[in-house]
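User: Can you help me understand a structure? I only have the sequence.
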Amino acid sequence: MRKDLFQDYDVVYIVTETKSFREDREWINRFGKRLYMQYPEENIYYPSDVENCYGWLDGNRLDLHVCTLKNAPNGLEPYINLVDKDNLMPEKQMISDKKYWVTKPTREQFHCTCNEFWRCLNNVAKGLWREEIPYVMDMINFQVRPMFRRLLEWKIGMENNFSVSVGKSAKYMDKYISKEIYQKYLQTYSLPQVDTIWDAVLNMCDLFGEIASEVNGKLNFSYDLAEADSSKGYLHHIRNLPPDAEKVF
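Assistant: Let's start by predicting it. Here is the structure, written out as tokens:
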């Protein structure tokens, strides 16, 4: 990843207990003035084990954690040892991003991803016919798009010997695919308007089909073209269905 002014720093201290650090928080003031602070372990929506790991996430992009030894190795990202006066951490430091590399899919994973993509589009279609925009956008972004993105990640992995990471939400995708395909991918996003969403969804279908056929051919899987054609046909039918229709067909 290219370094820039928004890169943050994650600092983890290995401690014997976290309680004293949680109760007296004055020690973090030595790192300077803060814009704001988040205590993720105190957020009811995040599972936590405060006795073994506790964090402070500040607005200056410095994320501090105190972790007990038994908890630290499992939770660390790629890391380097800055100070290890007690020789607690393994000598071999984790400086590679290999754990995040795109992995080669199995035949079953490929089939299930394609099936989930094409099947969930019927919910998008009915939501668009009903003009239920919040539902449609959630269905696209949380159900359909993850399958679409996964397929593109497999294409990238396939072309790079499955030895690269595309980053969270595939944010580095543009480094590994052509400008043409990347522009097609961006065209799958839309404004919250029925017609523009329809255009974006159909763009997504076209690109998904193109990439699925490519992955299928190179990995010798079995891509269900009949399922894809049926799904696309249904989408076009629903798009042209009158708003006062009493039957789907």
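Now, to help you interpret it: The mean pLDDT is 89. The longest strand covers residues 9-15. Let me know which part you'd like to focus on.
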